[in-house]
Design goal:
The protein is built from seven helices and nine strands, in the order αααββββαααβββββα. It is an alpha+beta fold and 222 residues long. The chain has a single domain, classed as Orthogonal Bundle (Cytochrome p450). Its cofactor is heme.
Length: 222
């Protein structure tokens, strides 16, 4: 059950945010399609960037300090509850310069590669990292390739940035619970409007928003 949740539901949320971010940047879509057609593995930087910008597990995973210690000059007494939060870590400017800007090419910047590898922790690290990591990465790679090779897509004009604000219910998703996109087959002029709806019970996102769970973040350029 943990594997099914860790590698499927969160992947669906990630793909929704990936479409939202990528489809608003036609130049990125064009380059991605070119790379996919030429079978260049660099296409994988878009899923990686998306997981970084919109980590679907944004809740802090608490741990208890087993001994007195000091981290970055901050004393942490034994018994203190500590944890990390992906959304903030993935906006650390030393690792991700201009973090709110949608620039997948940053993953080729060798100047920040060391810091970026250390700070990129959407699946956590160590012995207790997400057991769905390989399933999720495989799914995202295949989803990106299948979707962008088959379809030409645009965001429906009715979508607003505030609809895509992240709410944190341990596994994050957009407040609006859906994404409307206009689709057509790459070689077919007929266009349809498709609704990508997230698998949340009715009212969950609205209730989370009322309780102040929403992170209020859509990113000015994401």
């Amino acid at each position: 059950m943990s594997g099914m949740f860790g590698g499927t539901g969160t992947t669906a949320n990630t793909f929704v945010f990936l479409l939202w971010a990528t489809l608003r940047h036609p130049e990125v879509v064009t380059k991605l399609k070119e790379e996919l057609v030429s079978v260049v593995p660099d296409a994988g930087v878009v899923p990686d960037y998306q997981i970084c910008a919109y980590p679907t597990i944004v809740a802090m995973l608490p741990r208890v300090a087993v001994r007195d210690s000091t981290v970055a000059g901050v004393p942490i007494p034994k018994g203190t509850i500590v944890g990390t939060q992906n959304y903030t870590i993935h906006r650390w400017e030393m690792a991700f310069p201009d973090p709110e800007r949608f620039t997948p090419d940053r993953w080729f910047d060798e100047r920040t590669s060391t810091e970026r590898k250390e700070a990129f922790v959407p699946f956590s690290v160590g012995a207790r990292k997400c057991i769905g990591i390989n399933l999720a990465q495989m799914e995202l790679s295949k989803l990106v390739a299948a979707f962008f090779l088959r379809f030409d897509a645009t965001i429906d004009p009715s979508m607003r940035p505030e609809d895509m604000r992240m709410f944190d219910n341990f596994s994050a998703g957009p407040v609006g619970r859906k994404l409307l996109i206009r689709l057509k087959e790459s070689h077919d002029p007929k266009q349809i409007i498709s609704e990508v709806r997230l698998p949340y019970p009715d009212g969950l996102a609205e209730e989370d928003s009322k309780q102040g769970v929403s992170s209020g973040q859509a990113g000015p350029d994401l």
